[in-house]
Amino acid sequence: MVQDWRQLMDQRYHVEDSAEGSYVELAFECPADAVELRIAIEVEGPQGTVIDFGALDPDGVRGWSGGARREAIIGAARATPGYRAGALPRGRWAVLLGAYRVPSPGCDVAARVSYLAESPVWLRGDLHVHTLHSDGLDAPWQVADAIVGLGLQFVALTDHNTAAAARSFPVREDVFAICGMEWTTREGHCNLLGSDRALRDFRVESPQEALRRIEEAKAQGAFVSVSHPFDDSCPGCAWGWGLDLPMDAAEVWNGPWRPCNQAALAWWQAELARGRRLPAIGGSDRHAPHPFVRYGMPTNWVLSTTPTADGVLAALRRGHVALSVAPEGPLIDLRCGVYMQGDLVPVGGPEQLDLTAAVRSGDRLRLYSEHGLEQEEVLEAGEARRTFARDGRRFWRAELWRWFEEVRYELPAALSNPVYFADCN
Ligand SMILES: [Zn+2]
Predict the structure, then answer these.
(1) Of 164, 215, 397, 422, which one has the greatest count of Cβ atoms within 10 A?
(2) Closest to 177 measured CA to CA, from 198, 146, 200, 219
(3) What is the pLDDT of residue 1?
(4) Ligand 1: distance of its center to the CA of 282 in Å?
(5) How far is the CA of 368 from the centre of ligand 1 (A)?
(6) Nearest to 11 by CA among 92, 108, 99, 89
(7) Separation of 328 CA from ligand 1 center, angstroms?
């Protein structure tokens, strides 16, 4: 990510020798778009001067360095030892100075605070993989290596009815895991992402109980996405507890493209047409080496404001996600003014949509609204840019189909989520 530190405070403060033993607060406001704060002090004074420092957030002491450090970073995802990583609440923060030892005639402290503003970036990842914590082959560290090797930045660990894998996923700077489990019942599967305690018990006997389980998982903070809802290749793999249950998303693209994905895509289109706003996501469901079931096939492109599991899940909830057949793309970027796929354009908002995608010669672009397929075009290789009017529709979304010589079939290379339009009636 681009590191763009913006200055919040640059203050000099004189500490009298008579103030020895006291504390001073240098207050600053934490902006709403801050994802990391950096606090640094410099001390000028006679030999033997010791100024301790730490940070206050609106709830109290956020961290403390004593005299051991001159700089600290506090972020949503990481923090200097001695400080707590996590959300940065808005409101009054302060650099906390401790006048531990201040010989005459006192000292000067320069305190500087800067922050890193959130800047959305496309992160790529796989949202459905199995490890040796269920019926997969790879250990979590092997999943991490494979994901990094493909150029992906995140992976959701979704073993059957257990979230144990995330605990042994390595802490690395080039990849992060989303803790999850694939809730596996005799009437279908559902990925629960972002919580290691989504369900107290996975067993379920009725649609009413399935609804209660979903509500419980959501109350635990989990993101709920029905997996391969039409997969009838194995007993109990298709979702039989009702597709009107309050899912956060649907996995319309599971592993290699096949009839169950086509059925999921058709069902999703019908749901969109009747006014439901439901993000489409994908996942490889990779268990073991396989010619067509590979990590990152499909790949989720998520426009996230932070490179963290929370950032990805927040973006998924907003539908800020596009799917591609492989880690290298293609990405369909669908915008409407300042709005993007997943967004609801308000009444009176922009009416013109802009689509870009890097395509191959012969790729077929298809544009869908609530009326179904509306436009279709065979493209030349290169960066395709198309502009089209809303034309009174309630949503627009795009598919890119490609001829794959190895299977001699035309299959999806990319899907976008819809841009939705609010209606005045
Ligand atoms: Zn499954």
Answers:
(1) 397
(2) 146
(3) 43
(4) 12
(5) 28
(6) 108
(7) 25
Answer whether 155's CB lies under 8 Å from 358's CB: no
The tokens for 403 are: 């001829």
Q: Identify the CATH class of 330-425.
A: mainly beta
Domain layout of the chain by residue ranges: 5-117, 120-143+158-267+281-317, 330-425
Say if 5-117 and 330-425 have the same CATH topology: no
Distance 219 CA to ligand 1 centre (A): 23
Q: What single-letter amino acid sits at 341?
A: Q
Q: How far is the CA of 188 from the centre of ligand 1 (A)?
A: 7
Q: 70 C-alpha to center of ligand 1: Å?
A: 50
State the pLDDT at residue 312. 97
How many Å lie between the centroid of ligand 1 and the Cα of residue 267? 18
CATH class for the region spanning 5-117: mainly beta
Q: What is the pLDDT of residues 238-274, one digit of tens each?
A: 999 999 999 999 999 999 999 999 999 999 999 999 9
| Cβ neighbours for 321, distance < 8 A, ≥ 6 positions apart | 279, 280, 281, 300, 301, 302, 303, 315, 341, 342, 417
Which homologous superfamily is 120-143+158-267+281-317 in? Metal-dependent hydrolases (3.20.20.140)
Three-class DSSP category at 322: strand
Cα radius of gyration (the chain)? 25
| Spacing, Cα 276 to ligand 1 middle (Å) | 24
**Distance between Cα 223 and ligand 1 center (Å):** 16
What is the rounded CA–CA span in Å between residue 282 and residue 292? 15
- Alpha carbons within 13 angstroms on the beta-carbon side of residue 389 total 2
Structural tokens at position 389: 């009017």
Residue 219, classed as helix, strand or coil, is helix
Against a cut of 0.85, is the pTM above it?
A: no
Which of 229, 245, 130 has the alpha carbon at shortest distance from 187? Answer: 229
User: Buried b vs exposed e over 155-165: b needs ≥16 C-beta within 10 Å?
Assistant: bbbbbebbbeb
Distance 229 CA to ligand 1 centre (A): 9
Give the three-class secondary structure for 288.
Answer: coil
User: How far apart, in whole angstroms, are the C-alpha atoms of residue 189 and residue 229?
Assistant: 8
Give every residue of the chain whose pLDDT is below 50, as ranges. Answer: 1-2
